[in-house]
Amino acid sequence: QVGLVESGGGSVQAGGSLKLSCVQSAPLSNRYCLGWFRPAPRRQRGWVAGITDAGTTTYSDPVKGRFTISRDNAKNTLYLQMYSLKPEDSAMYYCAHRVIAVCTTRSDRYNFWGQGTQVTVSS
């Protein structure tokens, strides 16, 4: 079992930035995908961004160019740097771990989840 704990959420004005963190209780395995999700229309958890053990990153269209996903293996920590935040970015953000080194937008393909951190962007 792998524990994930998110932090870094908060309230900001539109145009502001936040950096989310997700600490994993156990060292990252050699092969994985780490992802960030948030609620989306008709989806309990919609894809935001992902990064594989090889460092390959992918982003959903609404956040491309504004968000950056990264990880620090030495700290067992995943990050999501968010710039130019918009009110529609307001959501609970969840990190997730998939034990297969291919990222997918399907939340049901991820093995472990954090409890979430709330982001609120005011106009």
Globally, the shape reads: globular
User: Whole-number average pLDDT?
Assistant: 94
**Count of strand segments:** 11
Rg: 13 Å
Q: Distance between termini?
A: 40 Å
Taken as a percent bin, the fraction of beta residues is over 45%
| SSE run | EEEEEEEEEEE
Largest sheet: 7 strands, mixed
- Indicate the structural class: mainly beta
Number of helices: 0
Low-confidence stretches: none
User: Helicity range of the residues?
Assistant: under 10%
Report what the structure shows.
Strands 2, 4, 5, 6, 9, 10 and 11 form a seven-stranded mixed sheet that branches. The mean pLDDT is 94. The chain is mainly β and 123 residues long. The protein has strands spanning 4-7, 10-13, 18-24, 33-40, 43-52, 57-59, 67-72, 77-82, 91-98, 112-113, 117-122.
In short:
The protein has 123 residues and is an all-beta fold. The chain contains no helices and eleven strands. The strands form two sheets. Strands 2, 4, 5, 6, 9, 10 and 11 form a seven-stranded mixed beta sheet that branches. The protein has a four-stranded antiparallel beta sheet with strand order 1-3-8-7, with no helix packed on it.
